[in-house]
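Inverse folding, one chain.
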């Protein structure tokens, strides 16, 4: 028996790359300024309308689950009239976390989850140092963190 995920395409479209790269860039800018990056979500429909959401009123895991649930509800409901969003085509979720390096030490990281209708969904991370250090803030190029269950 084949599952729906077996029929999903590999790869990332230009539109999803742009959406997720913009979100990650904005989050890195926030970190450089010393702001906490809560769970940030951006969703785009087929018409190019983008809606942004922030989840911060609960613990990190609950906020992350809230963002994932929001993507699913937007999909189920065919969009969000209030924000002018039609049925979502793609999404990206970004949040602060820690990632173990080669030596097993945990380092500050910005994680990104992203997906698009009909495609496999993925995650990536970028290590960072110097939160709040402005021009001295440093980050690594995004590295793949694996495939995820699609929310669309």
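Residues assigned per position:
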């Amino acid at each position: 028996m084949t599952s729906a995920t077996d029929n999903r395409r590999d790869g990332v479209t230009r539109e999803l790359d742009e959406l997720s790269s913009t979100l990650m860039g904005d989050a890195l800018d926030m970190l450089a300024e010393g702001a906490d990056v809560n769970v940030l979500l951006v969703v785009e429909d087929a018409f190019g309308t983008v809606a942004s959401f922030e989840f911060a009123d609960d613990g990190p895991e609950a906020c992350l689950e809230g963002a994932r649930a929001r993507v699913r509800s937007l999909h189920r409901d065919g969009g969000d009239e209030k924000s002018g969003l039609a049925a979502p085509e793609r999404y990206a979720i970004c949040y602060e976390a820690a990632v173990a390096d080669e030596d097993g030490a945990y380092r500050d990281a910005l994680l990104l989850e992203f997906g698009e209708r009909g495609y496999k969904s993925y995650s990536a991370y970028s290590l960072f140092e110097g939160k709040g250090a402005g021009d001295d803030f440093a980050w690594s190029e995004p590295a793949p963190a694996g495939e995820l269950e699609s929310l669309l």
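The chain has a mean pLDDT of 92. The beta strands are 39-45, 50-55, 88-100, 106-116, 121-129, 138-139, 143-148.
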